[in-house]
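Human: We require from you a standard protein entry with sequence in single-letter code and fold as tokens, and nothing else.

Assistant:
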Amino acid sequence: MKEIYFLRHATASWTSQTTFDMDKPINKYGVHEAQLIENFASKNNISIDRVLCSPARRTKDTSDLIFPGFKYDIDSVIYKDLIYNGSSETLINLIRTQDDSINSLLIIGHNPMLPKVISLLTSTPMDMYEPCTLTLINSKAWSSIHDSKLKFKVTPKQSMK
């Protein structure tokens, strides 16, 4: 069974002095959200074989805060521009091409791409996808991800229960 975790970046600081969207950091509340999701991952013994991350600063900030709970090597994160500016289909193709030795994949990205991809792969509508929402879907193989099953979707607030 293949596990695909999707994580939207934590809340970004839109009052930052930077003018480029790519350079927006997360804010203090975003740090709190990431810590809650990191704790959730730790409590639920989530471990990740590969991390694919948007190169945007807010996704990198999120990754830096959550990696201990998800048990992955921060230096092994693979940054992909297509997670920031690609289409849903390009992300699905990237997932589909993962090596069979990889059993768990974490993708750290953005709205609206992540909920759209989850909806396409599971036939489950994903209307609201708050910052730092974590979703897990399962598939029998990378090549058959269009038959994936939604296992859970948890927001930072829900992760405290």
Summary: Helices lie at 28-43, 57-70, 81-85, 88-96, 113-122. The chain has a mean pLDDT of 95.
